[in-house]
Amino acid sequence: MHLKSLILKGFKSFADRSVISLEPGITAIVGPNGSGKSNISDSVLWVLGERNAKNLRGQAMEDVIFAGSSARKSVGVAEVELVLDNSDGTLPVDFNEVSLTRRMYRSGESEYLINGAPARRMDFMDILHDTGLGTGAHSIISQGKLDAILASKPEDRRTLIEEAAGVLKHKQRKERSERKLANMDASLARVKDVTAEVERQLKPLARKAQRAKQYQGLADELARLDLVLAVDDLRTLQGKWNATLKSENEAAAGIDVQKIKAQKAEEELEALQLALQEKGLYVGDLTAQRGRFHMVVERFESADMLLSEKARSIRSRREQAENTAMGSARRISNYEEEVAALQEQLEERTARRDALATQVEELKAQFDEAKAERQSRDVELAEVQRSLRQREREIDEKTAKRARLQDALSGRVSTKQLLESKRDEIDAELESATVELDEKCKGLDEETAALAELLEKSRAATEDVTAAERAVAMATSTLDDKRKAAQRLEGKIAALEEINRGMLSKNDASAWVAEHGEEFDAAIAPLAAEVRAPQDLEALVEQLLGEDIASMYVREAASAQSIVDALSQTGATGTASVLVAGSAPESISCDKPRLLDSLEYPEHVRGLLESLLGDVFLVDSLEEGLGTRAGSARARFATKDGIVVWPGAKITVRMGTADEEGMLARERELDDLRAQLEASNEGQATAQIELERLQGDLERKRAMSLDLSRTHAQRAGAQASAQAERERLAKRVGTLQASQKSVAEDLARVNVELAKTEPEVVELGQAIEALRVSRTDAEERMSDISGARAIAYEREQALSSKLSESKLEFATAKERSLSLTREHRERVRDLERAQHAKERAERDLVVLDVASKRIEPLHDVLQNLKESATAWVNDLAGKAALEQSNSASLNASINEARAASRAAHDELEATQAKLNEVRIEKGKLEVQVEAAISTIVDECGTPLETALEIPAPQDRAAAEGEAFKMRRRLNSMGTIDSSAAEEYEAMKERYDFMAAQVEDMEAARRSLKRIVAAIDERMQQQFDVTFEQVNENFKTIFAQLFPGGSASLSLVGGEEGQSSLGVEVEAQPRGKKISKMTLMSGGEKSLTAIALLFAVYRIRHAPFYILDEVEAALDDSNLRRLIAYLATLRNETQLIMITHQRRTMEMSDVLYGVSMQADGVTKVFSQRLKDALPNAD
Fold it and tell me: CA 495 → CA 279, 426, 498, 659, 1135, distances in Å?
């Protein structure tokens, strides 16, 4: 894959449409500063999806639109089209050529197109992933970006490796997925909150639903118990009715019996009363009888009232039954009419439904046929469109090829004219160069001989300078050795003096005396500094003197007194000795040598030493000393090895190593060292003088050599210039001769190419014309197919609409048919219920008519009895008024008869009262039976025949107690929401659904997390492998660009294996030790950044690279190495270089010139270098 062409219109300074055709290899874009070269790299970066205006050298994205100039108006849209050759299938699209277009309007709207079809920026990114292109990639190196790579953070440089490893896209997609996961987590949190709220609401609602279910269960059970009890009550009432009916019959029979008894008693009483009447004694009894008849009349009135109430109730129930029968008849009539109407509608709807079903099937078949036809048209249209696009591409290719050939043809014509003109110029220049070459060759040989002699003198002077430099170096080395030796001696002296000072300062008192003694006697000094002994006697002398060897010595006793007085006032601790000079004591005579005679000391300490050592004589052995002691009683005899024989019986022996040194040995060594130091200082002075002399001689010889070298260089430069000029002229002559020959060859080749190109242009024109005709035919065919397809599409849409309407009508008819069916069944059930109600009312009317007929005769009988009783009362009252007297015996008999009659009447009245009570109870039972029947039928909704089949409860008391408890529980449950159960079921279903969804999302999220972790691990492994490869490539390329240098990459900023690690660059050009990249020069930074970029490019090749003045900071040597490396990439990738360097232009395949016109608009022209004049100057 490579970049075929770049088309710019309205982008920055490219106000007009500009086409840049590109080919594999190296393309150089040149032009003066400010002409718009970098706008080309900006346009490629922009069309690939860049959204940061600063990366496009602007402040806002609208800056990419041509803003106008003094001579041109601004434009309203910027458009860049990038055409990529995809013949190798690098891009994941089924096209050999992919066009990516981006437009932007001043309103801020932006458009992306892929092969002319609208797309999204995300589609661009998806296509360009894994190609090394797109935003974030480094295939386009703008001005200043090289320094930015080294100056960037290590974490930013990591993206280079990630892009090469192919993990950057996965990382970006992972980041997008993580953002989506974060959004999903937020949504999930909200869903969880909603679920928790639903769950919170679900608990009280569940309790409500449970209460409603419990209430409904209790209500159903209570209804069942009420029905059982009502049926049992009905059965009980029926039994009571039968018992009451039996009691009524019995009472009626008893009344007949009592009537007979009362009648007999009355007859007896009447006989007695007749007798009394006859005797005139029964008047009072008549009065009593009248009272009793009053009571009989009142009972007749009560019975009449009861019969009247019963008659009224019967009339009321009869009216109700009649109304029920009439209403049932009306409802039956209405229901029969509705059932008939519904049956008719149902049959009509069923027929309509069947017709619609048939219509739907027919329309579906027609729709499928229309859809198949439209799809066929779509296939044909797609085929024609593909063919048309193929024709368009062929036309574009051939047009572009013809344009290239025409450009080449024009170029060749211009080249031919140029070559002919060049040939004449070369001929004239060749003649002039030949004459000038002959003139330059004169006198060059004499100058060469003189220069050789001067060179010999300069070489001899150089050898003298070298010898003088060696002598100076030797003298300098000698002086340094002497200085070092003196320093060593001074160090030893200082060390020994420090040891001696330590010996003088054994305690505070002795230290005070050593420090302040000079204040009292300027000549004060330790005794060891005044005495010198032979080396073999030093140890013996120190043994004999003991601590006195380190004691301070003064010449005057007064000084010693002053020191002692001052010391006593200091409060210092320890013991201090002060030695005082004095006269020599009397000498001891002995034939042995005295120790003092072997010592060296100044005269002023003679007396002191005589006092300290004047009695010591030297012997060779202890035996000799012991033998000699007898001759001198005050003398001490000592051997050199430290055995001392004292006067008397004392002998001391010194024990210790032979290499121990005392103060005398150190003083002796100090004297030697001071002598050596003095000799060394004298040697340093001598060496310094010799060095200065040699340095002066070296400077003189250097000046002489320099003069000779300068003279030689000047003359050699002149000769070299002359030689170079002669060589240049010779080369120029050869070049001109070769150019003359090349021009002739080029002229011949151009003539051949002209003859070859012109027929090709004509042939391409004919082919283009034929393709255009074919395209016109294809367009006409596409128009026909489009018309047919539009008709088929319209027919498909119309059939689809009809099919939808028919389906809707069918569904409506089906639903209406079902509804009518349900309604018809309901009306049939209503009709049946009305018929049952009418039949029940008619039965009730028959029963009530019978009862009414039975009541009317009874009412007449009671009325007659009441009237008869009233007549009897009136009659008795008359008779009582007539009778005034009676006899006592007759009165007694009458009283007895009256009592018997009264008893009979009382029994009769009791029996009648019982009969009345029975009849009243019978009326109550009748009402209760009707109420029970109403309860069973109306309240319980159970037909009476069905209810009577229910068995009686085994324990009525327990059933009543259970019903009472249930009723009390229902009352205690309070208000019940009957819809709570339905709401609970709906909310429970919603909660279960949401909980299942949340669990599925959680499971999916956990699975995604595991997948992301696995991808992260794989990405890290891929990154590690790629990092090592890039590091090796970086080392290799850096060594090529910096011969002898070294470089490497390292991971910094975290623990190994973490994705947050950054990439640090370490580079060391040859002979340098650079700790920071900022310390490198501009050219070194550029080459290092280029080495890093191409190390990455080796891993993942991009289709093309655009380098914008990356070699601007390089010198000629570094530029040559860079160009040599770029030349190795010529066949691997496509390089587009924006440059000012001539070497870069020379190594490129195609040159594009960019210039800024007077109107501020950039123009572009091209030149293929192989078609241009080679080696033209």
Answer: 196, 90, 5, 18, 76
CA–CA dist 166, 1027 (Å, integer) = 12
> How high is the pLDDT of residue 81?
92
Whether 252 shows a pLDDT value over 50: the answer reads: yes
pLDDT band for 54, please (50, 70, 90 cuts).
confident
CB contact at 8 A, 26 and 1143: no
C-alpha distances (whole Å) from 247 to each of 255, 262, 500, 850, 911 are: 12, 21, 163, 21, 11
> Under a CB-based contact definition with an 8 Å cutoff, are residues 1043 and 1070 in contact?
yes
Using alpha carbons, select from 923, 992, 814 the residue that is nearest to residue 198.
Answer: 992
CA atoms within 13 A on the CB side of 726: 13
DSSP assignment, residue 726?
A: H
1088 in Cβ contact with 1064 (< 8 Å): no
CA 228, CA 952: separation in Å to the nearest integer? 7
Higher pLDDT, 834 or 1127: 1127
Q: What is the mean pLDDT of residues 1089-1112?
A: 81
* C-beta separation of 264 from 877 below 8 A: no
Using the predicted structure, report yes or no on whether residue 302 has a pLDDT greater than 80: no
- Say how many Å lie between the first and final Cα of the chain, rounded: 36
Contact by Cβ (8 Å): 27, 1137: yes
For the four alpha carbons of 251, 256, 262 and 264, in that order, the dihedral sign comes to negative
The pLDDT of residue 883 is: 54
- Is 1089:1111 a contact under the CB 8 Å cutoff? no
Q: Buried (b) or exposed (e) across 752-771, using 16+ Cβ within 10 A?
A: ebeeebeeebeebeebbeeb
At residue 288 the predicted structure's pLDDT band, cuts being 50, 70 and 90, is: low
Dump strand ranges (E) for 206-339: none
586 DSSP 8-state letter? P
Q: Which residues contact 70 (CB under 8 A, 6 or more apart)?
A: 1159, 1160
Query: Over 90: is that where the pLDDT of 1010 sits?
Result: no
Q: Name residues whose C-beta falls within 8 Å of residue 745's C-beta, 6 or more positions apart in sequence.
A: none
| 3-class secondary-structure state, position 655 | coil
CA distance 910 to 889: 31
pLDDT of residue 101: 93
Q: Of 912, 906, 869, which is closest to residue 253 (Cα–Cα)? A: 912
Work out the average pLDDT over 182-203. Answer: 78
The label of the residue with tokens 């000549």 reads 523
Helix (H, G, I), strand (E, B) or coil at 645: strand
Residue 740 CA to residue 571 CA, distance in Å, equals 115
Helix axes 168-279, 956-972, angle to 10 degrees: 130
| Separation CA 616–CA 621 (nearest Å) | 14
- Other C-beta atoms closer than 10 Å to the C-beta of 403 total 14
- What pLDDT is attached to residue 957? 79
Alpha carbon of 290 to those of 308, 874, 1108: distances in Å?
A: 27, 8, 151
What percentage of the chain exceeds 90 in pLDDT? Answer: 1
Could you report the per-residue pLDDT of 1117-1168, keeping only the tens digit for each? 888 888 888 888 877 788 888 988 888 888 888 888 998 877 788 888 776 6
Residue 688 and residue 696 in contact, taking contact as beta carbons nearer than 8 Å: no
Question: Residue 282's pLDDT is what?
Answer: 47
Torsion from C-alpha of 411, 414, 419, 421, nearest 10 degrees: -160
Phi, psi of 101 (to 5 degrees): -125, 140
How far is Cα 183 from Cα 903, in angstroms, rounded to an integer?
Answer: 108
pLDDT at 666: 75
Phi first, then psi: give them for residue 601, nearest 5 degrees. Answer: -165, 160
pLDDT score of 660 more than 60: no
Q: Rounded mean pLDDT of 431-439?
A: 73
Is residue 80 within 8 A of residue 112, CB to CB? The reply is no
CA distance 86 to 279: 161
Q: What are phi and psi of 1063, to 5 degrees?
A: -110, 120
